Prior knowledge:
Order of helices and strands of chain A: EHEEHHHEEHEHEHEEHEEEEEHHHH
Helix content of chain A: 25-40%
Shape of chain B: elongated
Largest interface: A-B, 62 and 47 residues
Number of helices of chain B: 25
Structural class of chain B: alpha/beta
Distance between the termini of chain B: 68 Å
Radius of gyration of chain A: 20 Å
Strand order of the largest sheet of chain A: 3-2-1-4-7-6-10
Strand content of chain B: 15-25%
Largest sheet of chain A: 7 strands, mixed
CATH topology of the largest domain in chain A: Spore Coat Polysaccharide Biosynthesis Protein SpsA, Chain A
Number of domains of chain B: 3
Strand order of the largest sheet of chain B: 10-14-13-12-11-15-16-19-20
Largest sheet of chain B: 9 strands, mixed
Oligomer: heterodimer
Radius of gyration of chain B: 31 Å
Number of strands of chain A: 14
Low-confidence stretches of chain B: 1-15, 116-134
CATH superfamily of the largest domain in chain A: Spore Coat Polysaccharide Biosynthesis Protein SpsA, Chain A
Low-confidence stretches of chain A: none
Mean pLDDT of chain B: 85
Helix content of chain B: 25-40%
Strand content of chain A: 15-25%
CATH architecture of the largest domain in chain A: Alpha-Beta Complex
Amino acid sequence: xxxxxxxxxxxxxxxxxxxxxxxxxxxxxxxxxxxxxxxxxxxxxxxxxxxxxxxxxxxxxxxxxxxxxxxxxxxxxxxxxxxxxxxxxxxxxxxxxxxxxxxxxxxxxxxxxxxxxxxxxxxxxxxxxxxxxxxxxxxxxxxxxxxxxxxxxxxxxxxxxxxxxxxxxxxxxxxxxxxxxxxxxxxxxxxxxxxxxxxxxxxxxxxxxxxxxxxxxxxxxxxxxxxxxxxxxxxxxxxxxxxxxxxxxxxxxxxxxxxxxxxxxxxxxxxxxxxxxxxxxxxxxxxxxxxxxxxxxxxxxxxxxxxxxxxxxxxxxxxxxxxxxxxxxxxxxxxxxxxxxxx
Amino acid sequence: xxxxxxxxxxxxxxxxxxxxxxxxxxxxxxxxxxxxxxxxxxxxxxxxxxxxxxxxxxxxxxxxxxxxxxxxxxxxxxxxxxxxxxxxxxxxxxxxxxxxxxxxxxxxxxxxxxxxxxxxxxxxxxxxxxxxxxxxxxxxxxxxxxxxxxxxxxxxxxxxxxxxxxxxxxxxxxxxxxxxxxxxxxxxxxxxxxxxxxxxxxxxxxxxxxxxxxxxxxxxxxxxxxxxxxxxxxxxxxxxxxxxxxxxxxxxxxxxxxxxxxxxxxxxxxxxxxxxxxxxxxxxxxxxxxxxxxxxxxxxxxxxxxxxxxxxxxxxxxxxxxxxxxxxxxxxxxxxxxxxxxxxxxxxxxxxxxxxxxxxxxxxxxxxxxxxxxxxxxxxxxxxxxxxxxxxxxxxxxxxxxxxxxxxxxxxxxxxxxxxxxxxxxxxxxxxxxxxxxxxxxxxxxxxxxxxxxxxxxxxxxxxxxxxxxxxxxxxxxxxxxxxxxxxxxxxxxxxxxxxxxxxxxxxxxxxxxxxxxxxxxxxxxxxxxxxxxxxxxxxxxxxxxxxxxxxxxxxxxxxxxxxxxxxxxxxxxxxxxxxxxxxxxxxxxxxxxxxxxxxxxxxxxxxxxxxxxxxxxxxxxxxxxxxxxxxxxxxxxxxxxxxxxxxxxxxxxxxxxxxxxxxxxxxx
Lengths: 343, 669
C-alpha cells in the first residue's frame, strides 16, 4: 500500500503541471503521480507518459464517457478541470495499491517532503488547507483575503489529502455527486466550482484535520501574514516553518500585483517566483497552441462563450443537441444563430 | 487550479507596452488615443462596448497637441469614431484592445457625453484639457484646481522637469503639465511615486480614469496602497533574471578562432623564447586575457608575470578563447588562448596545448601551476595538463568563490548573499546556479583530489568563508594580501573647507553586485539637497545624470592612478556597497590611501573587515540606515572630522609579489 498523488489540468496548464510533477518526484520518487487531463491532444502533439514525470494518466473523456460531450459543454475550463476531481479521486482510491491520496493544483510546486501530511493521514481521514490561518488586520487585506474566502470558500482546494476508509468513501460519493451537477462558477447562488462545497466537509464528515502550519499552501492570499526567509543553512522558512509547497496562483500581471501587494519587500518571495517562471518556461510545450482547450471551441473553431454554455445547461430542451460542439446543418451553433444573439 | 481572486479576471492590467485612453463622446464622436510606448508609428485598435467588439482595425493616428506635449510618440495617436451616444449611454463600458488580440490597452465606464458650444471650433482642443474628466470644461477646471492644491505639497518640480527634459518637452508649469497630460504618459510626479506602477497595480483607479497621484494622496495611502513597486532594485533585477543556461548561450561565440595553432606551431612559438634557456615555466590559468582586460585580478596576474620574469621563470598564461560564466564542458574539446611573458602567441585546442606542453616537459622543461580563475576552463583538462607536465602541486588563488559555487561571488540569483549553503538545499533549488552547483562541485573535488594545492587567499575573511563552506582537500592555506597599507608623506592641504558639499564617489566596475544600484538610488534621493556632490571613477561614460565622471584606468605601470585621482578630487566618501563578500577589494584600499571614508554593508566581506581593522569607514546594517546616515547629519559629522584630520590620513601601499610571495620561500624551481 502506498501514497498516490494526482493533479487535474488542460493542456494549456501542461508546463505548470510538469513543474509540479518534477518537484513532487524530487521529494517522493516512490509516490505514483496521476495526471487527470480534461482535454484532447491537439494535432501534432502526443502526451507521452514515458517522457513525463507522471506515472498514470486519466482522460476526462474516459472518466465521463457515460455523460458524453453534453456534460463537457456545460462547463468552462476551470469548471471542467475542477469538476473531474471528484470522480478521479474515487477512481484512484479504487486502485488496489492506494492507501493515501493527495490532490495538488497544477500551479503548485513542492519544496520539501510531504511526509508529515502522509503521517497525519494515519489519524485523519481528510485533511484540508485553509486560504488563511491567521486573521488580517488591514482593511484592504481583509477585503482581498478574508472576504474573498467568504465568497470563494474557506479551504483552498488546490490541496486535498484523504486516506482510504469509510469516511473518505462517503465524502468521495458526496463530492463526486455535487461536482457532476453543480461544479459551476455561480457566486450569485453561493456556488464556486469544487471549492465552496468543501466548506461543508467539517459539518458532514468526521475525522477532518485542518492544516495550520504556514509552510503549506503559501500563496498571495495568505502572504500578508506569512514571512518567508532563506537562511544561510539553505532552508526556506515561512514564519519559522519549513516551506513545503507554494501555490503560484495566476502567473502573470494579476498574480504579480497581488504578490507585490502582500509580499512587500520580502525579496525571498520574488526569488521563488523568478525560479517558478524559469521552470514553467523550461517546460513549455511549443506543440500546444496558445490558449488551447479542445472543449473551448466548436469543431469549426468558433469560440464557445460562457453565455452559450449557461444557455445550454439551463434549457432542458437543448438536450436535443447531444453533440453540441458539432457544427453544420441542424447543429446547436446553427440553432444559436437563428434563435439567439449569441452565435 | 487557482480558486480565488477570479473576480479580478475582468480587471486585466494595462500592458506595459501600450498606453491609451477613452476620453469622451463629443458631438457624436468617441474620442480617445492609443499608442505603443516608445514607438512613433500609429497602431490599430479594436473598440468594445459592453464587451462586444463594435469597431475593428481603427487606426489611432490623429494628431493631438496634448499627446505631443506629454511626449506620447509624435502626438499623432488620437482617434475619433462616429458613435450614437443615445444607444450606449454614459454607463456603457468602453474598451480599447490592440487590434486582433486580447491585449487590453484602456477601459472606461461612466464616459462623458458632451456637445460643442457654437464657438467651439476645435473639439479636440477643448478635449485636451478635459480628456480624463468625464465633466464639462468648467467642472474640469475646478477639479484640476482642487487636484493641484492637494498634490502641490508632494510634487517635485525638479524631478518632474528632468523627465520632461529627457523627452524634449518644455513647460512653465510642471504640475499643470502632470495634471493635464503627464500622468497619462506615465511620468512620475515624485521620486517616491510611480504613476505606471500605481495604475497597473490598482485597476480600480485605472478604470475610474482619475489622476493616480491625487488618488494616492486623497485615499490610497490611508488604504495602505503602494506608491512604488516594493523591493527596490532587487525586484527589478529579479524581473530581468534569466536562467544560467540562457546567459551561457548568450555568451557563446559562434565558430572558432580565426587561426588555430597546431601543437607543432605552439611548441615552436614557446621554444623561440624557452628552448635555449630551458627556463622553468609557470602555467597560469585565468578567465580572460589579463593584458587586455581591466580589473583587479588582471592587475594581480600582470604583476605576477613581471615578478616571474624577474625570477627567471617564463610565464605562460592560458585563458579560454570562449569566455564563459561557468566551467567549460567536461568532455568537449575547446579553444584556449595563450600569452607568453605578456605577449599573445595565439589560440589552440586543448589537446594541441597538452601535446605541446607535454613535449616540452619530455624535453626537460620544468612546469609549475597557478590557478587564478577556472571560469571557461574544464577542470578535467587541468588534471590532464598537470599529469602531462609532471605537475603534482599547484597554487590556487581565492580571488572569488568559484571553487565552492558557480555563483563565484556567492550571490543567490544575483541579488542576495547566500552564505554558500549545502548543495541541494532549498536555497540552491531556487537559485539560477543551483542545478549547476552539484556537478560543478564534483568536478572541483576531482581537481583538488588530483593536484595538491596550496590555497592562497588575499584576505583572512575570504579564507574563513571558503573553509567553512568546503571540504576540498588541500595541502595548506595561506593569506597573501594583494597590497598592504603603509605610512605616506602628508598630503597637500585640502581646498575644500567644511562648508563644501560632501563628495561621494562610486569607484570601478558598474554592476548591482558592487553597489551601483544603491549608489544610483542615493543620487536620485540626495542630489537635489545641495549638500552632496556625486562622482564616478572608472572607465564607463554617461553613467548617470548628476554624477561627475572621472576617467581613470589603473594599470600595472600606474597602479596608484585610482588613489591619486580620488585624492586629487578630494573625495570625502567612497560607497562600497557590495552585496556579497569581497575577497580583497582594491578600491577599499585605494579609498583609504586617498584619505576617504568608506561606507559599506556588513556582507561586504573584506571591506567590512578592513574598516574594523583600520577605522577608515562606517559599516551600516542596511539601505534604510544608509539613507538615514546621509539625511540625519551623520555623514556631515564624519566628513567634518575627516577633513580636519585629513593631512595625517593618506597612506601609501606596498604591492605583493602574488604567488612569488610564497613560491620564493617554499619552492626552489
